[in-house]
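This section describes the prediction task in plain terms. A model, or a person checking by hand, is given the sequence of a single protein chain and must write out its three-dimensional structure as a string of tokens. No templates, partner chains or ligands are provided. The sample shown here is typical of the held-out split.
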Amino acid sequence: MTPTLRTERLLLEPYTPEDQEDFVTLFQDRRISQWMGDGPATEAEDRALFGRIFTKVYAQDLFDVWAVRRNGLLIGHAEIKPTDVVHGYEIIYALAPDVWGSGLGRELAEAIVSYGFDTLGLTEVYATVAASNNASLAVLNRIGFEHVRDIAEDDGSTTRVLTRRRTNQRIAPGG
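The expected answer:
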């Protein structure tokens, strides 16, 4: 079951059925959806996606998916899940445009990465980002992700594959 996570300013918790309208609003915003999956979807497709979070992802405990809240409002979406693109775990996150530039992207991405390392026991996590998504690439760079390779997509675009490896940052006593 997807656990609840807290950061300084964010609450990541499993979606509830009451989140559907806010989820659809978030995913229907083209400024966000252009970077998600295969790009913008219809409202019906986003409603179906929301339903699958409950009927498949949560019901079968496939991977972790969070509603991202700030001050009680749904402002984003986050996931960490296995992916065949890199044969590892990938983080996925999105925030509403009205909070862009506030450092919340970095806070959110760092929380998901820490969960992957500390709770899932991963030694590395990945992100796949459109090469033209400079904001997300900058966030990931700031928290220690490194470029691994590029994927040429069928539509002519490029997807960057990035990774962050777990490092032991503890200093031995007396060291």
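For orientation: The chain is about 30% helix and 30% strand.
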